[in-house]
Amino acid sequence: MKLKDRFSHKSLKSEVVDYLKEQIFLENYVGGDRIIETNVANELDVSRAPVREAIKELESQGLVETVPRKGTFVVEFNQYEIQELFDIRVMLEERVFKILIKEDLLTKDDFDYLEDLVSEMVQISQSNKDKNEKIVLVNKRDMKFHSYLWKKSKSKWTNKILTTLYYQLQLAMIIDAKKEDNLKEASLKHKDIIRCLKEHNVKKTKQAVIDHIRTLSEMV
Predict the structure, then answer these.
(1) If pLDDT is split at 50, 70 and 90, which confidence band does 180 have?
(2) Cα separation of 216 and 79, whole Å?
């Protein structure tokens, strides 16, 4: 089925972006692989124009890089870069959680939403889906969980920086999650974050976030 027939409600560029992200996150494209516009256009039965636009968007999100006279390649993260991304996230999310607790910004509805996301993560982790697909789906919920809290903090520039880092963090976490033997256990770690937020304990919440993120990063 042609891409334009499947997704008439969104622009072709947006659909190509989603398709390429999925291919990257499922590791059908891995770090260092070249993305050839013609091949992608043929796979999706679209012109090269939306593919070219999609690649530009992915480049702005830090998922691909274009090398003059060589082409466009999926970014590679070395151990130092992954650790750097996680360290930045720890630092910025610590600020978010302090604001959320100090200003008491989370309601029962907020906690219900977060708990539902955790339940979805656990359910996916126990499903019969392909391992790569489970990692991608769990990661999407993980990022929904955290980005929801970023926005609730109403911290304009912290949120903007974290949003800018969103896709790099997502890819780095997926790479790292390949080393996580128990997706269910990784998903349940979010319950500690929720519990500490409910207790209005800044110190414990900070430690829960650090433990959650650094436990993953130390597995690299």
Answers:
(1) low
(2) 12
Residue 49 has what pLDDT? 93
Domains and CATH numbers, the chain: 3-74 (1.10.10.10), 79-217 (1.20.120.530)
Helix (H) / strand (E) containing 213: helix 202-217
Q: Contact at 8 Å (CB) between 204 and 98?
A: no
- Would you place residue 6 in the very low, low, confident or very high pLDDT band (cuts 50, 70, 90)? low
pTM over 0.70: yes
The full DSSP string for 166-178 is: HHHHHHHHHHHHT
Q: For residue 17, with 0-12 CB atoms within 10 Å meaning exposed, 13-18 middle and 19 or more buried, which class applies?
A: buried
Tokens of 119: 């339940």
Instruction: Answer yes or no: are the C-beta atoms of 56 and 49 closer than 8 Å.
Output: no
Residue 74 bridge partners (DSSP): 64
How far apart CA 30 and CA 211 sit, in angstroms, is 28
Output DSSP code: residue 33.
Answer: P
Q: How confident is the model at residue 1 (pLDDT cuts 50, 70, 90)?
A: very low
Mean pLDDT value across the chain: 85
Instruction: State the Cα–Cα distance between residues 188 and 101, nearest whole angstrom.
Output: 21
Min mean pLDDT across 7-21, 181-195, 205-219 is at 205-219
Distant-in-sequence, close-in-space partners of 184: CB < 8 Å, separation ≥ 6: 122, 125, 126
Closest CA to 62 of 149, 133, 151, 168: 168
